[in-house]
Amino acid sequence: MPVDEYFTKMFRGIETASAQGETDEEKAGLGWAFADAYSKKALAGWDAAGVAIENIAIDGPHGPIPLRLYRPEGPFTGAVLWCHGGGFRHGDLDMFEGHGVSVELARRAGVAVASVDYRLADDTVKYPVPIDDVHAAWNWWTDNAGTDGPIGLGGASAGAALALSAALRTRDTGGRAADVLLLAYPFAHYPNPTLSPAMSAEMAAVPFRFEAEGVDEMVRNYVGRISDVPRDALPGAARLDGLPRTRIVVSEYDDLRASADLLERQLNEVGVEVESYLAKGMTHGHLNHPPSIAEVANSLDFFAKGLHA
């Protein structure tokens, strides 16, 4: 199906707003400001009703790690540790992909959720610090979630890579393994696999893309280099056997879709139970947008059902 009208309107608005700027910096700032206002307007009326929220911090190997805990009203039947996306250098607990997804998983699946504010990569923070934070949060959450039910580990985009890396570390070093991995449009490989010619042609409808230079810069900021990248940094290069059953949400119009598709094939090859959901008409990061969009809601339901499959 074509790109969802929600996103085509957003793209047109970003382009119009950006055109008012004189420098590249001004254009980018105006574009981001429009996108932020657009999504906030679309989220009008959404709230966290029925979910108790608590901000805490736990000890980690690099200092305190902020967590935001979500517990639905009444008894809950499992738990999730969730990692927002943002290319390893952006994002926080307040973005909808962090806060909103956590609320929705708590409500839809009847589980407790911990959203982890891992350290973002910059000039001083590099791999493996973000993984260290997620792994420490996972170990704490498995001891403190307060449930005998299934516990999932998941994230979106870069956060999905960190969740997968933490699961690999748990497999190799011991500890409570996740019952299910929930990976939304994961960025799991470097170099990023190329799209098929047919998919490349369809992506012409999307004005904002993951160009090769941008992916290089994302990895360089995270790892410090684009050669000799550690296998668990972008974990599609790692040994993947022995992982928990996995659910993958894929955005239809996404340069990183090739990474998600390859990861599914890799997991199948080594005997990991894996199931994917293609969110039609969606672009990368669609869980950062309102669940009033049908395919956003469907993606959340796919994850929620996977917790108790």
Word description of this protein:
- Keywords: Hydrolase.
- It holds the Pfam family Abhydrolase_3.
- One of its GO terms (molecular function) is hydrolase activity.
- InterPro entries: AB_hydrolase_3 (IPR013094), AB_hydrolase_fold (IPR029058), GDXG_lipolytic_enzyme (IPR050300).
- The protein is α/β, with parallel strands linked by helices and 309 residues long.
- It has 2 domains: 1-45; 53-307, Alpha/Beta hydrolase fold, catalytic domain (Rossmann fold, 3-Layer(aba) Sandwich).
- Helices cover 39% and strands 18% of the residues.
- It has helices at residues 5-18, 24-42, 99-109, 129-144, 158-173, 197-202, 212-223, 257-269, 294-307; strands spanning 51-58, 65-72, 79-83, 112-116, 151-156, 180-184, 245-253, 274-283.
- An 8-stranded mixed β-sheet has the order 1-2-4-3-5-6-7-8, sandwiched between helices.
- The mean pLDDT is 97.
Q: Quick recap of the structure?
A:
This protein is of the alpha/beta class. It contains nine helices and eight strands.
Features:
309 residues; alpha/beta; Rossmann fold; 2 domains; eight-stranded mixed sheet; 8 strands; globular
